[in-house]
Amino acid sequence: MLAACGLLKPDTPRAPVPPPPTATAPAAPAAPAAAAAALPAATAAASHCSVVLYGDSILHGGYGGNLRLAEPPAAALKRLRPRYTVDDRSANGETATARAAGFANEKRAARFVVIAHGLNDAALSLPVEAPLRSMIATAVREGRVVIVTGLSRQRIPVPGRDQYDAAIRKVALETGAGFADWGAEEFRAAEMADILHPAGAYSQRLSMRIVQTLDRLAPDCRV
Asked: Residue 91 burial by CB count (10 A; 0-12/13-18/19+): exposed, middle or buried?
């Protein structure tokens, strides 16, 4: 096992930034399969082009311990789609299990919720389906539209990576969440910041996968 050899291990945990105060969440739930069209009027009116990001170091743009890309995915998303308000709550070393524990108690105002977990979960042999379903169900009850990402690729594959990627895809299909297929993005070993984390060009292409999914769900927010 790579982790046992010390060649590959989950990144160093980094405490997420406390979420900002927000308005009262809309009461009416929306079915994720109906995507943007089914959003409660209160959510659509208050923050039509807005997204909150949850994920580990891949979505955070972390690498090499405590380093961060010059343009992490949150900044890339804002550059590519300036109309969006982006609330970045990603954190190095985080797992779906850890985030799900307090997810229902967090305050959110965004229309879209992006969840990019699974790589650390695979490396630690933690469950991924149950915590993902819990977070998706919570966000849907709040009237939000959820997007989950597949898993990126590495110079030295994380054991279980393909199985966890398939499990996340299944959760998206069964819950109606949007799916940004990171595993389908072109991978080049030379575009890695280290054996686990994408460098700039690869990270930006992964960010574009999220953007393309947002575009399908909210074409009016593209400009």
From this structure: buried
How many residues belong to the chain?
223
CB 78 within 8 A of CB 207: no
In the 3-class helix/strand/coil scheme, how is the chain assigned residue by residue?
CHHHHCCCCCCCCCCCCCCCCCCCCCCCCCCHHHHHHHCCHHHHHHCCCEEEEEECHHHHCEECCCEECCCCHHHHHHHHCCCCEEEECCCCCCCHHHHHHHHCCCCCCCCEEEEECCHHHHHCCCCCHHHHHHHHHHHHHCCCEEEEECCCCCCCCCCCHHHHHHHHHHHHHHHCCEEECHHHCCCCHHHECCCCCECHHHHHHHHHHHHHHHHHHCHHHCC
Integer CA distances (angstroms), 136 to 33, 116, 145, 189, in order: 12, 12, 9, 32
**Model pLDDT for residues 36-95, shown as the tens digit of each residue:** 444 444 444 436 899 999 999 999 999 998 899 999 999 999 999 999 999 999 999 999
pLDDT reported for residue 30: 39
Q: How far is CA 152 from the centre of its chain?
A: 11
pLDDT in tens, 154-186: 999 899 999 999 999 999 999 999 999 999 999
What pTM does this model have? 0.81
